[in-house]
Write a sequence for this structure.
């Protein structure tokens, strides 16, 4: 990562996470979420067939239009940003490119968290619910990465 503001480290929440190497002000542009853009049903098939699915690791960013960015295919460190129900980052679409920005001031050492708010096609949601559990530890944790 260019300015070494961020680093990938083991996360207490899940697998690896992305951490701030210095204090970051709210509104700062942090990193683009790179990867292959694919349809959700393709993504779900990949999730089910990848060996890392066994430990619940997903690198999908939901574009909200039935497509996701698969950070596991040509992605960068942004794919390691974990979901949190009390996020300190937000994702904004800029001309089809997804950028993570600091939603709040982030202190050196803090883990970057995004509210994934995953959405599925109607009818799938109930079945999918248990596949994407959250254990971010926030008091308001929804226990799932799916949209409320
Ligand atoms: Zn949570």
């Amino acid at each position: 990562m260019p300015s070494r503001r961020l680093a990938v480290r083991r996360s207490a929440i899940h697998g690896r996470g992305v951490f701030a190497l210095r204090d970051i002000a709210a509104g700062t542009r942090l990193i683009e979420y790179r990867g292959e853009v694919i349809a959700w049903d393709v993504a779900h098939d990949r999730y089910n067939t990848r060996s890392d699915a066994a430990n619940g690791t997903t690198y999908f960013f939901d574009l909200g239009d039935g497509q996701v960015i698969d950070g596991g295919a040509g992605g960068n460190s942004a794919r390691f940003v974990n979901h949190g129900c009390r996020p300190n980052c937000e994702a904004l679409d800029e001309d089809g490119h997804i950028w993570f920005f600091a939603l709040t001031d982030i202190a050196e050492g803090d883990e970057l968290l995004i509210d994934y708010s995953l959405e599925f096609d109607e009818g799938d949601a109930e079945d999918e619910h248990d596949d994407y559990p959250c254990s971010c530890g926030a008091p308001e944790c929804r226990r799932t990465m799916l949209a409320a």
About this structure: The pocket of zinc ion is lined by residues 85, 134, 136, 138, 141-142 (CB under 6 Å).
